[in-house]
Amino acid sequence: MSKYVIYLTTEASIAIEVEADSLEEAQDAAFDELPSGVCAQCSGWGSAWSLDLGDFEVDESHHSVDGEWVEVKKA
Questions:
Q1: Model pTM?
Q2: What is the superkingdom listed in this entry's lineage (predicted)?
Q3: Of 6, 5, 14, whose CA–CA distance to 53 is shortest?
Q4: Helices in the chain by DSSP H: which ranges?
Q5: Residues 28-44: tens digit of each pLDDT
């Protein structure tokens, strides 16, 4: 019988609260606060599976400022 490796994907998201003077500075600060990965158990270490979160990108469609939701409308 053959062994297969099946790749499954999903979307992961994270919300990070930072203080900054502008949206651009806030986005940069959020990247500085990102966790470097997941713990060994959550990553699947020693299991028949592994988990990789990949690279995060800024979701530019919305954010919040001082508790107020901001939805960015594209022209």
A1: 0.72
A2: Bacteria
A3: 14
A4: 23-33, 40-43
A5: 999 999 988 889 999 99
